[in-house]
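I'll show a record.
***
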Amino acid sequence: MQLDEVADNVLSDWEDRRLRLWLTSLRDSPEAFGQWAGLVRLRAEFFADRWQPARDDLLHRLHRYPEDGAESRRIPEVILPMAADALEADLRAKGVPKDMAARARELLTMDPPVAQWKL
């Protein structure tokens, strides 16, 4: 499959929400972000809900991998760093200290959360 086609399929799946970002839990360590916890949470939620990979950036990153037919399996390892880079840059632009903005990268995942049911 051509990388242009892979990128178009990814973007189509993204728009249809078959591929998306999820958040890990901030409740487990809100003290890790101190006074910035509220802003970090709001921006991480925004990114999980509204961020979308740019086609050119996606193609550029896909070109880093060999074309061996495994492109679709690599999508999370391509997209997640793109989203994390964007979140970190966004937080830094809003004044969040560098170390906390870097730590916020770990709040994004492409794995849906496991449902926890209480009976």
About this structure: The CA atoms of residues 6 and 71 lie 7 Å apart. The mean pLDDT is 87. The two ends are 46 Å apart (CA to CA). The longest strand covers residues 22-23.
